Amino acid sequence: MFVEPSHKRESQYPGTGWIEVICGSMFSGKTEELIRRLNRAKIARQKIQIFKPALDKRYHEENIVSHNDNSIRSVPVHSAFQIIDLAENCEVIGLDEVQFFDEGIVDACNKLADAGKRVIVAGLDMDFQGKPFGCMPQLMATAEYVTKVHAICMVCGEVASHSYRLSPSNERVLLGETDLYEARCRRCFNLGENAYNLIHSQP
Ligand SMILES: Nc1ncnc2c1ncn2[C@@H]1O[C@H](COP(=O)(O)OP(=O)(O)O)[C@@H](O)[C@H]1O
Ligand SMILES: Cc1cn([C@H]2C[C@H](O)[C@@H](COP(=O)(O)O)O2)c(=O)[nH]c1=O
Ligand SMILES: [Zn+2]
């Protein structure tokens, strides 16, 4: 479990912030982990602000909601630039679904961290094709802390790191939940649509 860096760090190096990345497949618990960290910052009476890309309106217009129905209030934003201004007066910034932000998000997160803020981002590390998703590689490279969380493979019950798309669409962005995606391990992801037959017919 991730434990926040000591407050001593802040007094040793005043004005130094940092970036935390929470990544993994769909259903791996990224949003739950983001909410957990932000709630702890709230308990510590830190000023927090949470953002999500405006395009993600699956569960709620404003709230960030996990597949487990945990939720926290957030501000939908259209571009990375908006975040710098909106986050000016807070100490801790949370971003969900960060893979959907434009490429300016990497600079924005680094500027905020340089300005002494704790920046916690959660996002898909891979798309439905198993390719690195948007800004995620750059964010992971420039973050101080990277946590990869895992789901359970819906086919075989192993640890899952991939998001398997159940529809034939090839668009990179296709919002959905269990209607369109399932978590899979590498083997079942590569087996594709035959995975259930192949895995469950083995002696
Ligand atoms: N295949 C799965 N593996 C693990 N958890 C799953 C799976 N399918 C549904 N869940 C639920 O999803 C929750 C995690 O939701 P969430 O934090 O929103 O994940 P993420 O943001 O990574 O998509 C789990 O606590 C569990 O209740
Ligand atoms: C793999 C993949 C996912 N998406 C969409 C599907 C969901 O709306 C979000 C991910 O949500 P979660 O909180 O991580 O479960 O992203 C997509 O548009 N393209 C993809 O390749
Ligand atoms: Zn599997």
Report on the architecture of this protein.
The protein is of the alpha/beta class and 203 residues long. It has a domain of 139 residues: 3-Layer(aba) Sandwich (Rossmann fold). Helix content is 28%, strand content 24%. It is built from seven helices and twelve strands. The strands form four sheets. Strands 5-2-6-7-1-8 form a six-stranded parallel β-sheet, with helices on both faces. Helix 3 packs parallel to helix 4. The longest helix has 14 residues. It is elongated. The termini are far apart. The model has no long low-confidence stretch (mean pLDDT 92). Keywords: ATP-binding, Cytoplasm, DNA synthesis, Kinase, Metal-binding, Nucleotide-binding, Transferase, Zinc. This is Thymidine kinase. It catalyses: thymidine + ATP = dTMP + ADP + H(+).
How are the elements arranged and paired?
Blueprint: H1 7-12, E1 18-24, H2 30-43, E2 48-53, E3 64-65, E4 71-72, E5 75-77, H3 80-86, E6 92-95, H4 104-114, E7 118-124, H5 136-142, E8 145-149, E9 151-152, E10 159-160, E11 162-165, E12 181-184, H6 186-191, H7 195-200
Parallel strand pairs: 1-7, 1-8, 2-5, 2-6, 6-7
Antiparallel strand pairs: 3-4, 9-10, 11-12
Residues 24, 26-32, 66-68, 151-152, 154, 183 line the site of adenosine-5'-diphosphate.
